[in-house]
Amino acid sequence: MRDAATREVAPATPPSGPPRRATIRDVALRAGVSLGTVSNVLNRPELVAPETRQRVLDAISDTGFVRSSAAHQLRAGKSRSIGVVILDVANPFFTELVRGIEHTMVEHGYVLVLCSTDESASREQRYLRMLEEHRVEGVLATPAERDLASFVALAERGVPTVLLDRPAPPGRLCAVTVDDARGGELAAAHLFGLGHRRIAFVNGPATIRQCADRRRGARRAARRAGRDPGDAICEVLVPSLTAEQGEAASARVLACEPRPSAVMCANDLLALGVLKGLVARGLRVPEDLALVGYDDVVFSSMLSPALTSVRQPKFELGATAAGLLLEELSGAPHEHREVVFAPELEVRASTMGTARPAARREGRSDVAPSR
Ligand code: RIB
After folding, report:
1. Tell me, what's the pLDDT at 73?
2. How far apart are CA 114 and CA 88, in angstroms?
3. Which of 30, 55, 140, 302 has its CA 20 to 30 A from that of 251?
């Protein structure tokens, strides 16, 4: 035995074996009832006398027993879980979207199984198979690519599926989307309206439907401003819509000839990266280049300068899609439909500071003054 300062304490009697979960048998023994009585208290409490029911509930509390949803699933063939397949869990757009889904689904006793595909079609296929093996009761998904056959087939095998942020083949699946062409038009028209004659557009691949539609809208804005889209817009394509890709694209934005006086980005993560790249090169936003993002995620209004962005109703998108899925799960008569939301432009300092569009910098007087 050592002295008091370093007295060694005899080890507590180790528990017998590794910790284990309390079982329904432990509850029955503690309450002095049969396994069937415990099962009735859990599944059909109305069949059990109140005094017995309370004894069982006390035993459940004392033992820390938690019922197994796996067992419930085996009996019912259902898991009370919903698969949620998104493109990028690091993108705050999807965080808010999933919050909307969770807000609706948790009220109806469902848990979410979240899968992030990183825009990979192969990962998406693997996740869909795993979700079906786990007997999820439904799937909410933003497809990684244009091919929707896997989602239609999943629904035909009895797993109700609703597309998020992506139109569905009419009548085959429900979908909840935002008019991305209108969103691209709002962003570009805002810049042309400020007098910018040439803008860069940092965009993702055309395989991502949202990117293709935003591009279509931006080109429509150029035509409506009386401009040739090929002259008015310098497209800078990136492989994925991340802040890192935006920062890397900033050099290519500055290499556009003639130099653009504004940049629009396919989402706020790209805009964040472009902002970092421009500032690192000593350029100011909006004085040297105005900047517009897309999504209006949580950080956009907190940047310096605050980011002008196309707002998508992210929470509402998720909650609405969850509502459509619940309608299908209810077994009530259901017709597949698409709910389309309208985007809005949130104008902030990154375009409305002291921007001097290129034309203005050349001293021209025929440019609308930036407000
Ligand atoms: O996933 C890429 C983008 O598409 C997101 O940032 C959001 O804009 C979605 O619509």
Report:
1. 65
2. 11
3. 302
- Report which DSSP code applies to 33: -
DSSP bridge pairs for 10: none
Mean pLDDT across the stretch 155-161? Answer: 95
Examine the domain organization and report whether 288 and 350 are in the same domain. yes
State the distance from the centre of ligand 1 to the C-alpha of 179, rounded, in angstroms.
12
Region of poorest pLDDT, from 72-76, 80-84, 314-318: 72-76
**Nearest protein Cα to ligand 1, atom 4:** 210
- CB of 93 within 6 A of ligand 1: the answer is yes
57 is written with which tokens?
């509930």
Contacts of 347 (CB under 8 A, 6+ apart): 190, 308
Q: 188 and 42, same structural domain?
A: no
Does the model's pTM come out above 0.70?
A: yes
Q: What is the pLDDT of residue 12?
A: 61
Overall domain count for the chain: 3
Query: Candidates 165, 207, 265: which one to mutate for ligand 1, based on the most atoms within 8 Å of Cβ?
Result: 165
146/250 same-domain check: no
The burial class, CB within 10 Å (0-12 / 13-18 / 19+), for 336 is middle
Verify that 276 and 198 share a domain, yes or no. Answer: yes
pLDDT of amino acid 370: 34
Q: Over the chain, what is the mean pLDDT? A: 90
What is the distance between the alpha carbons of residues 154 and 139, in angstroms, rounded to a whole number? 9
Measure 24 CA to ligand 1 centroid, in angstroms: 47
CA distances from 196 to 151, 189, 259 (A): 42, 10, 11
Q: How far apart are CA 235 and CA 252, in angstroms?
A: 10
| 267 alpha carbon – ligand 1 mean position (Å) | 6
